[in-house]
Amino acid sequence: MPRISKDRKRDRAVVLLNLGSPASPTAKDVRPYLREFLMDKRVLDTPYLLRKFIVEATILPKRPIESAEAYEQIWWDEGSPLVVLSGRVRSALEERIGIPVGLGMRYGEPTTESALRDVIARAGESLKEIIAIPLYPHYAMSSYETAAVAAHDAMKKIGSQVQLKISPPFYKDPLYVEAMVQATRPHLEGGFDHVLFSFHGIPERHVKKTDSTGSHCLASGDCCDTPSAGRDNCYRAHAYATTAAITDGLGLGSDKFSISFQSRLGRDPWLKPYTDFELVRLAKEGVKKLVVLSPAFVSDCLETLEELGIRGRADFLGAGGKEFSLVPCLNEHPAWIDALEDFALRDIETFTAAGRI
Q1: What is the pLDDT of residues 311-330, one digit of tens each?
Q2: Which CATH number does 6-170+334-344 carry?
């Protein structure tokens, strides 16, 4: 994709959008964070009153204490790993491209609105467009879509005439794939039995809701391999495409890797197979040296450091596995900064996801 000219570069600012984190690993701070997250209608997609009841009556009484204990295990002196790492990436990208780059979280601080106000103030009167880059490789209503909608809503609130453009999902972009390949390859050099691609899970109903045809996604076992407009915004199809691209770059045979989905919540069916089940299954079937990577995350966070790095490791080793190698997220990897530079300076039109944003 062509880049903008040097003249247009002076008219542009960039905002990186990520999920967010509680302010501290305490139940007191985890509770409002979870409330904001779970009350998002694109995360818990039930009618408001039912959603309010589920969150306040069944989740918030106990979950903040459990989550705080998990956050405590991975918290850094500087703060939340996700926020700290995202801030480092923001600084590296701004230094690289020489225009204002902001960082906004969908939930918690710094907010999306504050990030937009920041770059508008720093860019000055020359600013004509802001490129918002949701740091989610794959399209899902509970991640990419809600971040994009929140950015549009914040711009309306600010009342700026600056044009906001949303960068599209980059699940099979060659630069993202190359960064993933470079980050993963060193973990394969010492030998391995199997590679598990663990993607963040989403409810099956979310997949169906983003199916523009209303009849393609999850209607058959090979729906992700069958051409259809319905899979354009399909999270599972995107995950499969990412896996295919990375395994091709690594030269992995089909018998050396598999895909799973983690972080399910509630009783409704989520995308399968489930990562926690797969870790046990692989160990019991004789996999001794396992490499795990999580391509849906570009910054290490609770789901990678605690869910995979602590609980997942314990599950695999407890079931008979011998070596568990977790590939860090892209974080500040030079190839990832290269990719973000290209995303930030591309000549794009705003991505609308078939009218959903």
Answers
A1: 999 999 999 999 999 999 99
A2: 3.40.50.1400
